[in-house]
Amino acid sequence: MKTESDLMRDADARAQTYRQSVETRNVYPNADEIAALDEFDVPLPEGPSDAQVMLKQLDEIGSPATSVSTGPHYLGYVIGGVLPAAAAADRMVAAWDQCASSHANSPVAAKLEAIAGRWVLDILDLPRSSAVGFGTSATACGLSCFAAARRELLARQGWDLDNEGLVGAPEIKVVVSDIAHITIFKALRILGFGKRHLLVAKTDARGRIDPKTLPLLDNKTILCLQAGEVNTGDFDPFVPLIEKAKSAGAWVHIDGAFGLWARATNSHRHLTEGIEGADSWTTDGHKWLNTPYDSAMAIVKDGDAFARVMNADAVYATAETHAQTNLTLEFSRRARGIPIWAVLKTLGRTGVCEMVERHCRQAKMLAKGIDGKNGIKVLSDVPLNQVLCTTTGKETPADFAARMNATGKLWFGQTVWRGKPAFRLSVSSWRTTDADIERAISVLIDNY
User: Which residue positions in the chain have pLDDT lower than 50?
Assistant: First the structure.
């Protein structure tokens, strides 16, 4: 009879086999592999069934239908490859199955996530008094930061949001760039900031807010800036923008889902100059830090203000002020900060710096190798790890991407830049070597 240990060993073996195959698998499943997923589509079972059979089906049908985003040839979006240390730590997290809300529920989770938060502030050189909430995504973390910003700005106006709500409250304005990420709009929409009432700042040819055209700010304004524009990878000019915001009493939030990690480097840190003057920041672990998914950070300079807006104390469960239950959306949560701790523990400051700088160098190498070849035109400089391109011949960017992706040798996504179709290549997996970049160049210019 199969035991729990047998099942877990089988799962481990299958997971290992999958991870060891990512360099040779097609990066995206073919039509037959996707069609095979219909085998999962059966009525709800009337009774128990064999877990070993379930696991076999999950692997043999599910694994071929994955996009191999954890491999070295995936160039779509900014998706890390999950470092072995992070994957191993996440297995321990799953085995522990902790409700990582506070010290009372999980002493080990509370300790490690507190250390991880301190290390994040250290490596990103952000104000050490800040509080770090480990959330599911930059979307959820951005929502938390915007909620903290609104509550604090209203409190400065003498308005008690907790008791009075928003009816009759002073109006809080939000300034976003004309190419802000969709998740910013989503978070703001959920909080009740209607898109028609947002103040839009114009950007230059590289996607950076022009300080000269910045809408008027005051002490009831949230200014949202970008560290790493999703297409060009560029950065807003933080020094003049934050100076204007601070003189007006506005709250500054930085959307740094992947770009914030440039601050951990020697060669690209200058792109983040002045960013420490903001009031809140968001960044992902599952992008450039190469942790598993559901791994992101909301960072707020005034940690107590953050804890007040996110407080989840109950009569039967009170927690320390900066417990994760008081810094995230969830009352019950997994210890998603532990894989971040594991990466920072094993890579250290120099390891993170080397990985990010290597990807930036590889992105420039990729751009240089494809620009002007096979009808490809690189549309912008490559300040970070994003290579924005279009096609110059009869083939559209969408058709070109489809043709390249159909080879199974790489995968990348389409986008729109300044109203025109384009495609984007992102370099962010720890597995991607220079040889993988040379291989991608060969595929893209039809020499493979």
Answer: none
